Amino acid sequence: MNIIIKNKKKVISISILLLFLIHPNLRSQGFLTTSINWSLPQGGKNLGGHNYGFNALNDVGSYDNANQGWSSIDMNGDGKPDLVITSQGNGTYKDSFNPGANPFWMVYLNTGVSYSNTAINWLLPPNAGKFLSGHDYGFNSLSDIGSPSQFDQGWTTMDINGDGKPDLIIICEGTGIYRDCFAPGANPYWKVHLNTGSGFSPTAINWVLPPFTGQFLSGHEYGLNAIAGSGSPAQFDQGWSTMDVNGDSKPDIVVVCEGTGVYRDCFAPGANPYWKVYLNTGSGFATTATNWTLPSYAGNYLSGHDYGFNAISYGGTANISDQGWSLVDMDGDKKPEMVLVCEGTGTYKDCFSPNSNSYWKVYQNNGSGFSNTAINWSLPTGGQFLSGHNYGYNSIAYNGTYDINNQGWIISDIDGDGKTDFVITSQGTGTYRDCFNPGPGQYWKVHLNAGTGFQTNFINWSLPAGGMLLSGHNFGFNVFSEQGTFDSGNQGWSPMDMDGDGKLDLVVVCQGTGSYKDCFNPGPSQYWKVYLSGSTVGLNEKNNFDSQINLYPNPTKHLVNINGDEKIVGQEYAVLDMTGKLLMNGKINMKNQVIDISDFSVGIYIVKIGNSTKKIIKE
Fold it and tell me: What is the pTM of this model?
């Protein structure tokens, strides 16, 4: 049986948060032209007596009194980035909060429409972190490389066990001479403090590392003393990275090269090359490597020597047969592919066949290695164009220049369907490096992922007014991410999924005043401008609870069917407008109900069920 509820002030059936937004073309793809004022807590950058507020997504902070360091990262695993203040200057030091026995970070949780005004004191492990010249700074950033100074530690924040929440990983500690992992040699380990949902466990797990692996220089075994190391030609010195290579959502140790004394090669470069992959067991890394197969006779090739794929990524050069590559999940199966983006001709560093039917070579991930046969991944027309030469799209990302017809681009899943798309952000005019049609109708060109290449046709991905404004010229949003400057009207921005729906939103974090680069209205009521994604393609399911809920039809003019399993029954809901004003609230009473939104204005609404968020469009 269905229940239809039409009165907007009456209780209806589902735990919903609806955020109302007007948009003139609901079926268009792009960012909405109307922003949410995403409220921020008090704090941020404070230098020279001026309050800049949170004028970036991330800032390292400094020792200056009351100046804070912060990052935007999902701390509690709900799919929405939270605001994490990791340090505050006291005039002498840049410390975490209350370093020593009871340290913490200040975490402002993401509500789906803003950051909470009240911080959680996010517990940190005691008497740990940065320790220099007798001073305990604690964990005063999300990550730190550490140093050889005695007791000084290096750490990072990463989901190590695959539960969707970042953990605190202490990867090295100074001995007074060296910067080593713990117990390098036969039984090495990292100290992992798991995320409890409200802090990090004060007790560490000894996370097992593969023996006799990692950095080895001048006869000293440092072990895996960082999340990633580039390696060197020194004999037995290895380069590695920590990343999920087999698609199980847990990061693995990928050893990509080992020094021979002369060269820094992958393993067995030539006919049968491979990486050594130590898979994540959930409580450590396997001590025995999987030989992860690589494409033969490919990768780094210089001065007649075949280095193979001796890094996770490499830009390539103009040297003949030298290739550039990156690891990217191209087909949406959560496993990274090997993507060859360019090859040197002896004169230029071009994509493959740049002048006609250009492509990248993509070697698919089969779960235990990369295929030895490439897919020719079709590319759109365009790319780098300098001094009359067409290089094509010869890298994963490039900012472009003012040179006529020279483009800037990046690959990113912009529509939320789980597959990487091709986003062209700028094209040189000969004088400026602009987005397309800068001004009221500006846009990016987006070539969607077709499964075996990028579509030839592009979508005009709509952009709001704003972006780069310098010397009276409006460049628009001419790169994917920009820090901004103090110049009047010039903005800083970055795409980020702010509301947890799996699609990138455009977050404008600052605007120049002519003297300062501030967030908007710095002080008690400061905010960012967030332009939500207008895409209804591939709403990303964040968890099992979320995946059981369906809203249809979408878009709709009148009725919305809300369908779920027994888990949604009894859930609370609330309906708010974009200012946060409550429109309705109530509780679900059955698994299949209908809401009548015919009285609602045309627009986009965000539907939140528990911690999950979906969108519905009213036509």
Answer: 0.87
